[in-house]
Design goal:
Layout: H1 2-11, E1 22-26, H2 39-49, E2 53-56, H3 64-74, E3 80-82, E4 84-86, H4 96-103, E5 114-116, H5 123-128, H6 133-137, H7 150-162, E6 165-167, H8 173-185, E7 191-194, H9 200-208, E8 212-216, E9 228-229, E10 235-236, H10 243-253, E11 258-261, H11 272-285, H12 290-304
Parallel strand pairs: 1-2, 2-3, 4-5, 5-6, 6-7, 7-8, 8-11
Antiparallel strand pairs: 9-10
Helix pairs in contact: 4-7, 8-9, 9-10
C-alpha cells in the first residue's frame, strides 16, 4: 500500500502535501446529477493519495449511513470516512428529529459527525439566485434581533450534547455572525462556517466565537461560471468568491481557525483528490507557509471532525 501512495505522490507536484490531509467536503454520494466518482472510488482515490479522512456532503440525504458502509467495506484502506446531514427540505428540513436520527445512523457505531443548516434553501442563497418572493418566503432567514428560531436552537443543543460539528450553512455574513455568537452562548465549541463570501470583519467576528472558517475550492473555481442544477430542476450559478479576500482573512484570523476543502464531485471540476491538490497549491503559490497549510488541511479538520487513524492494510 505504501508503494502505491508513494507512486501517486511522485506523479504531480503538490500531491505530497495531501498525505495525512482531511477533505471534509466531498460530493460523491448518489445524486440527481452525475458525479465524477462514486463513494467507494472516492475512498480508494483518497487512500492512494495518502489522505486520512473524507467527509461526505449531500443535499438530499443523511450521509452517516453511507460513511458507515464505506468504513465497513474499505476501512482497511486507512481513510476515516464520516458523514452527517444538511438540513435541506429534501433531507427532512430543520427538524430536530432528523438530527436525532442522523446521530444514530450506522451499524451500531458511528453516526453523524456534523449537522449543517441549509446550504441552498436559505434566503441568502435564494436571493442570490434571483428566486421568486414565494420561494424566498419558504427559506431559512435569521432575524437581526430576538431569539433564534426554536428548531435552530434545539438543533444546536443536540450538536452540543453529541459533541459534533454544527455547520452554519450558507447564510449571509451578518446572519452567520449572529448564529455563531448564539451557538457559542449555548455552549457549542465545534462549529464551522462557510467563509467564501464573508468580509474580513465578519470572518473575524465569527472566529472570535471559536467557530472555524471553511474555504472550499468550488466557489473559487471556474465551476462558478456555469449555471447548474444544484437542488432542483432550475439552473443557477454562484458568483465567484474573492481569493485575495480569503488570503486576507487567513492573514488576519490565522491558520489555526481555517479549514480547506475541495467541495468537489461535480462534473465541471476535477475529481476530489485533484481538486483538493489544486486548491492547496493556490494557497501555496500565494505564499502560505507549509506549516499553515498543514494546519488548514490536516490538523484543524482532523481535530474538528474527530478523524480516527485506522491502520492501512491491503485491499482484498
Amino acid at each position: 500500500m505504501e508503494e502505491t501512495v508513494d507512486r501517486e505522490i511522485a506523479i504531480v507536484p503538490g500531491m505530497e502535501l495531501l498525505v495525512g490531509a482531511v477533505d471534509s467536503h466531498v460530493h460523491c454520494c448518489p445524486h440527481i446529477n452525475q458525479r465524477t466518482v462514486t463513494l467507494f472510488d472516492a475512498v480508494r482515490a483518497a487512500s492512494r493519495a495518502g489522505l486520512s479522512g473524507l467527509g461526505l456532503m449531500d443535499v438530499f440525504a443523511n450521509t452517516s449511513g453511507l460513511a458507515a458502509l464505506a468504513n465497513r467495506e474499505l476501512g482497511h484502506l486507512g481513510v476515516d470516512v464520516f458523514g452527517g446531514v444538511i438540513l435541506e427540505p429534501y433531507a427532512g428540513g430543520l427538524s430536530p428529529r432528523v438530527v436525532a436520527t442522523a446521530l444514530n445512523m450506522g451499524y451500531g457505531t458511528g453516526g453523524a459527525r456534523f449537522v449543517s443548516l441549509p446550504c441552498h434553501h436559505t434566503a441568502f442563497v435564494a436571493r442570490s439566485e434571483n428566486r421568486g418572493p414565494a420561494y424566498v418566503e419558504t427559506t431559512l432567514s435569521i432575524s437581526e434581533r430576538g431569539p433564534l428560531p426554536d428548531a435552530v436552537a434545539e438543533i444546536i443543543d443536540l450538536c452540543v450534547e453529541a459533541d459534533i460539528v454544527f455547520n452554519l450553512g450558507h447564510l449571509s455574513g451578518p446572519e452567520a455572525v449572529r448564529v455563531a455568537q448564539a451557538a457559542a452562548e449555548r455552549g457549542c465549541s465545534r462549529m464551522l462556517a462557510p467563509a467564501g463570501y464573508l468580509t474580513v470583519e465578519e470572518a473575524g467576528a465569527i472566529a472570535e466565537t471559536g467557530c472555524m472558517l471553511e474555504y472550499s475550492f468550488f466557489v473559487f473555481s471556474h465551476a462558478t461560471d456555469i449555471a447548474q442544477t444544484m437542488i432542483d430542476a432550475e439552473r443557477h450559478r454562484f458568483p465567484r468568491a474573492d481569493f485575495a479576500a480569503a488570503l486576507e482573512v487567513i492573514g488576519t484570523v490565522g491558520s489555526a481557525n481555517i479549514v480547506l476543502s475541495s467541495d468537489s464531485g461535480a462534473l465541471v471540476l476535477p475529481p476530489p483528490v485533484e481538486a483538493f491538490r489544486e486548491f492547496v497549491m493556490m494557497f501555496a503559490g500565494s505564499g502560505i507557509a507549509a506549516a499553515d497549510l498543514r494546519r488548514m488541511i490536516a490538523d484543524n479538520p482532523a481535530r474538528l471532525f474527530k478523524v480516527r487513524k485506522p491502520e492501512r492494510g491491503l485491499e482484498g
